[in-house]
Design goal:
With 350 residues, this protein is of the alpha/beta class. The protein has helices spanning 3-29, 47-59, 80-88, 103-110, 165-177, 190-199, 210-222, 253-264, 280-295, 297-305, 315-326, 330-341, and strands at residues 35-40, 68-73, 96-99, 124-128, 134-139, 155-158, 181-185, 204-206, 226-232, 271-274, 313-314, 347-349. It is globular, with a radius of gyration of 22 Å.
Length: 350
């Protein structure tokens, strides 16, 4: 390139930098003086809520402009209430973020409710702070010691909303494996289910991920108050190598495909996402700041001290997983819907 051309190219580069600088600065300054609502799809005090509040305390330091992050709990309808709010009512500028238990993904595939007002693939996925397996467990006074025992003994399982894991997993196992779980529905929060276990109102629970279990009820594991009888995920957790996966109870390829569908969203973990329509540059900023938070020594120290697992999943990976779940083959989705309607073992209102 001759000298004149180089000068011209340099001038053009300088012009483009000058032209785009105000836009970059505007993106960086957007959050200054603003409040960001962090919507949590569970009640106060559970593992998901504890994790959300921990992340919020440190995330604000890494968002340019250091906005105030206010946690707002919005439990209900198997996490659909919070998902609908994010899709339909929340501002689409990055000032509303949510952390939702990913059962709402299955609700969309299953067409589980006429009140679904979102497309999960359209949400802007920021990242997950951790992904770990979910569980089935029974209280130590139950005659059940393994999942095989649930083929012979009826087990009362406490549950919240119809779209929650607390109801989905036992219903699915009744359909696929012939277990005798009887779901006792209607508890307002999973914390209420835990109290019901301690009071002897129910005998077991499903859908509590391992990290939440350790944070909420670590003494239950330590003191043998509960027995883990299965875990839900794509691989056995290294800490519990002898506890079988739910997927392992499928007898045919079709059953295993069905159980895999209900296990895949565990890989979404504890996700943070924002509303459809949030500008790309705002999403990129939130992803960068979230990744920085996950590496923040003060965040990691507090997480370790509180027994909170940190095993981040990038937003791009979440977007891919969610798209795969939402685009489940029709035949698998049909069987999944059938399973939820014909789970056997029954259910009862509290």
């Amino acid at each position: 390139m001759h000298a004149g051309a180089r000068r011209s190219a340099l001038c053009m580069g300088a012009f483009l930098l000058a032209a785009t600088a105000p836009f970059a600065a505007a993106a960086q300054d957007f959050y200054r003086g603003k409040t960001v609502d962090l919507i949590v799809s569970t009640g106060v005090g559970g593992g998901h809520d504890t994790n959300a509040r921990l992340v919020a305390r440190h995330w604000t330091k890494h968002i340019p402009g250091a906005p105030n992050i206010v946690v707002k709990n919005m439990p209900g309808a198997g996490h659909l209430r919070a998902a609908n709010f994010l899709a339909r009512q929340a501002p689409k500028d990055g000032t509303a973020i949510a952390t939702l238990v990913p059962a709402f993904l299955l609700a969309q595939v299953l067409e589980a409710s006429k009140n679904i007002q979102f497309d999960a693939a359209a949400f802007r996925w920021i990242g997950a702070s951790a992904a770990n397996n979910s569980t089935f467990y029974v209280w130590h006074t139950s005659p059940v010691r393994t999942m095989a025992d649930t083929l012979r003994h009826e087990v009362l399982m406490g549950a919240t909303g119809a779209g929650s894991y607390t109801m989905i997993y036992p219903t699915l196992m009744n359909y696929v494996a012939g277990t005798k779980f009887k779901v006792v529905a209607g508890y307002g929060t999973t914390a209420e289910v835990n109290l019901a276990l301690e009071r002897g109102e129910v005998q077991g629970r499903a859908g509590n991920n391992l990290n939440s279990l350790k944070v909420e009820s670590g003494d239950w594991l330590r003191d043998g108050k509960i027995r883990l009888i299965a875990q839900v995920g794509l691989e056995r957790d290294p800490e519990f190598p002898d506890i079988p996966l739910m997927m392992e109870f499928g007898k045919t390829d079709e059953d295993r495909s069905l159980l895999r569908l209900f296990s895949a969203d565990i890989a979404v973990g504890r996700p943070f996402l924002t509303a459809p329509g949030t500008p790309d540059e705002r999403l990129a900023l939130l992803r960068r700041s979230f990744e920085a938070t996950m590496k923040d020594p003060s965040f990691l120290k507090e997480a370790h001290e509180g027994g909170v697992d940190v095993s981040p999943v990038p937003g791009e990976r979440l977007q891919t997983i969610v798209s795969e779940i939402v685009n489940t083959p029709p035949e698998v989705a049909r069987r999944a819907r059938e399973a939820m309607h014909m789970g056997g073992g029954g259910s009862a209102a509290r």
